[in-house]
Each structure stands twice: as structure tokens, then as C-alpha cells.
Amino acid sequence: LEYNFVPTVALSEDTDDLKDGPTWELYKAQPDGSAGERITTQFNDWKTNLEPGNYVLRVRYGHAESTQLVTVEENQLNAPHFILNAGRVIIRPREHEGGEVSSGATIRFEYDGKSENEYGETDVILPAGEIKATVTIGEGSTTETFRLEAGRTVEKDIVVGLGRAAITVSYVPG
């Protein structure tokens, strides 16, 4: 065997394995199965040789992650496969319908009791489920809630609806 440890990861059961972008964190497993001392952090399509034993392997891709307890056995190919149960969200924040994308916008994503901020036009990986996106441009904000299915992409233009008040003041004697 050239490598005895070849983990793979996909967004969902029906999507291809991710080669570029995953972050792998390998820990020695404690007797109770929890993560102990970190051994290494690797990126992308990772393959290696590990000593036989128990390990905890965590993979992150965007804001989605998954962890497994893995046992490496001598002279065997150990190929744990992770399903992130995640999807892709693309948000283009605009001040008004048909307007330019606002690079200064803040987009706050809320999901599974967590929240993350992104800025400007956003292309991000999030766990599947209900997603609340609040777009703020200057003093204006708007919120949309949508469902993200694993392995799918939700693409939205979110218009905050900022206007400019044009006020003319004149003095009329009398």
C-alpha cells in the first residue's frame, strides 16, 4: 500500500467527493472516544500513512463540519467517508432592485443555533436546514429565511430597499 489512510468527504450522499477546500484535523483518540492531542492539520485531498490505533478525525468545509472516531488497522486501507449534510448559498446583496452588488454589505447567517458573518457578495457552504440570512447595508436591513437542502445550491439577490430622501425646503413669507 502506498497510503493506508485515505479519507474522503462529500456535501451529501448524492454529490461527488470534495478535493479542494476541506480542512482535516487528526487527533489521537482518548479511551472514551473523545479527541485528545492534535496530531496534524491537513488540507484538500489528503492521503497519509498512520500507525495502527484509534483516532478522531474532523473535517471542515466552509461552515459545515463532521467528526468520526476511526480505527486504523495494520496492512489495510482505511478510507473513512464523511457526509457533511451541507449545501452552498450564494447571496448578492443589493441596495435596490437592479442595483449593483453592495461590497460593503454584512450578511449574517443563522442556523442550528450558530451564526456567521460574511461580507459583500457571498458564496459559502452551510449545514443543510433552515437558514436565516440578514443583509445589512448602512442603516437598512432585511431578513429572509429559506431551506437549504444537502448537496444543493440556493442563489439569491437580496434587496435591502434603501432609498434616498430628496427634500426641498422653501421659505414662503406670510
What does this structure look like?
The strands form four sheets. The chain has a four-stranded antiparallel β-sheet with strand order 3-2-4-5, with no helix packed on it. A four-stranded antiparallel β-sheet has the order 9-8-11-12, with no helix packed on it. Strands 10-7-13 form a three-stranded mixed β-sheet, with no helix packed on it. The chain has strands at residues 8-10, 23-29, 35-43, 53-61, 64-72, 81-83, 86-94, 106-111, 114-119, 122-127, 129-137, 140-148, 153-159. It is built from no helices and 13 strands. The protein has 174 residues and is mainly β.
The poorly predicted ranges are none
Sheet-strand content, in percent, reads over 45%
N-to-C span: 97 Å
Q: How are strands sequenced across the largest beta sheet?
A: 3-2-4-5
According to DSSP, the number of beta strands is 13
Structural class: mainly beta
What shape does the CA trace take? elongated
Order of helices and strands: EEEEEEEEEEEEE
Radius of gyration: 23 Å
